[in-house]
Amino acid sequence: EVQLVESGGGLVQPGGSLRLSCAASGFTFSTYWMTWVRQAPGKGLEWVASIKEDGSKKFYVDSVKGRFTISRDNAKNSLYLQMNSLRADDTALYYCGSDIFGGPLGWGQGTQVTVSS
Amino acid sequence: DVVMTQSPLSLPVTLGQPASISCRSSQSLVHSDGSTYLSWFQQRPGQSPRRLVYKVSNRDSGVPVRFSGSGSGTDFTLKISRVEAEDVGVYYCLQGTHWPKTFGQGTKVEIK
Fold first, then answer.
1. What residues in A contact B43, CB-CB < 8 Å?
2. Which one, out of A6, A37, A48, B24, has a CA that is 20 to 30 A from the CA of A105?
3. What does each C-alpha distance from B90 to A34, B42, B68 come to in angstroms?
4. What is the pLDDT of residue A47?
């Protein structure tokens, strides 16, 4: 069974940093693109970033470019999102997802990030 | 960026009746590899999203047959043949052909 467990969220001041993690199990992690998607309170889904199976390609939504970095450790079956220079509009529930055929099939339960002073 | 426009944004339906959600993209979703990467997701209240359909019309494992996807190019549809109570939630389309990937605004399905 595919399992994705996000962690690392919390309350942070504007301008601060957080590192999200996603622990994967139940599938061959190293053969999947992986994705972060976020959902602001009461809002829709927003694709944030994706990373290729071997980490050689990374893509970001414009609003996080230069501030967020997606990475992975295939030996640890883990996905990460380093978030710097956080802003209030980054407040959201962050999901990790395993991609196949253009979109996330498996999803975690999400980790809450709140940016507030 | 590709803009995904869903309609309607709110869809009250009667149990047992059909429902249809439209998703239109601002440019063609046909990839250079020939595939069209258009997916549909369901998000029930308080739950994580769940993918229902990938590449326009392929149902994911475990998805009831009452859900079907269709369309081509820039115009896509998700149909529920007979709505059940468990289908209440918000439905999103996602284009995975062009970077950045983009979701539609979501369509809230509720029971009349």
1. 45
2. B24
3. 23, 6, 16
4. 98
